[in-house]
Design brief:
A six-stranded mixed beta sheet has the order 5-4-3-6-8-7. It is of the alpha/beta class. 40% of the residues are buried. The longest helix has 26 residues, at 51-76. It has 19 helices and eight strands. The radius of gyration is 26 Å and the shape is globular. The protein folds into two domains: 3-338, no CATH class; 353-461, no CATH class.
Amino acid sequence: MWDEGIYAEIAREMLHHSWLVPTWNYQPWFEKPPLLFWLTATLFHVFGATEFWSRAVSAFSGVATVAVLHRFILRRFDLATAWISTVILLSTFGYLHVCRAGEMDSLLALTETLAVIGLAQVNERRQSGWLLFWLAFAAALMTKGGASVVLPLTLACVAIVERWRTEHLGRLMFGILLFLAAVAPWHLAMWHRFGTAFTAQYLSLHVLERASSQIEGHHTHAWYYLLVLLVSAPPWVLLYPSSLVAALRERSRSGVRIFAVFALLVLIFFTLVQTRLPHYIAPAYPALSLVAAVFLARSLRQLFARWQSSSSRAGILLAAACLWGGMVILTGHARKELHSPRMSNGMVTPDTHELAALLKRTSDSTRLGDGPLLLWTDPPIAPITTALFYSRMPVQQVSLFSDVPQPLIDEYTWNPVPLANQIGDRPRLLLAQKSVLAQLPSDIAFAPVTSSEHWEMGTIVAPARQP
């Protein structure tokens, strides 16, 4: 996916431009809130802008979620249940996938898990839970905007299911004011400065349109997330139905029922959203691991009570390990297809490792220029995000022909302008696939600077005009 390339570039541009206004390709960008970019830009400032640090926030968030959930379970159940939950979560492939990618879903999972823990504390009549819930809700909204709507839905459902009375809601207004104090300043600043340009991109395109229609080639059926769970969480997915039912029947104040409500709401909400992607349900994985661990720990105790010999218990554990290994192997191909570069409309995102190596080698040894760098590739998908991040300069896609086709997906992939409009008497830097470079007219001078197997970079100058 090019998303992590986009997010890394936005964070890198923050170092040299505005920390308040996110930019991509040096233009204002409002598709998502800025919390991930602020955190990543901070790491870039301290350690340098590299692939490792562009993914570090996701990785650290994943580790933090595991630790927070483990501690929560340990304080309310026992050590065995806590470790079972940790094992389940760390062997859930869908969760591991989002923790490895430099995207927003791992950080969103952390903030929403903290918010649900806050609700569990409120259910225990600990009013400090309200503070945790609203601050974590604010962080979730500043991470991925509309995706955080499941938290107020969870609050409403938990208040009904747990039959909260007015004493639980006494600090509700204070929490709402605290939430607004955290999220309103950036949103109001962007709206004041950019007006409808901000709201159109932030709300209309990437919230309302994504929720109401299938965009960007992601065409899926209503049962899509059932497939995602089957291939991303084997064999734990077999425990989910029974563990969710058992959790919803739970009458203790342990918080397990609240986590079950949250997990179900995540699955239902993103099923109703028309644009569906595997990582959208990532915040449900920690909650599902908790309810499954509680259910499995109780079931194992009952089995061990019947089969008290060491050999019988070892047999039970061996059978469980064989089941896990068998299902992992059986779902391996489907899991690879689920996270493959092929989109649901048949398009394949390109392998950009060669291009990244070329640009990194070139930018480390020489100054590339003032830009924009002209990028010339075969349609329909161009690796503009890779060119932006490693060239560290603006990038403009170009095409040889004046009748440039309309973008097939969006400006991140194929949105060129005619090459003739971008060159003149002064040399311009051109990065092109060798396959298209052969189409360059003979009267246009191209001087190679560096190359790799499939790419070539050099300066290009238009033919001198006759007086």
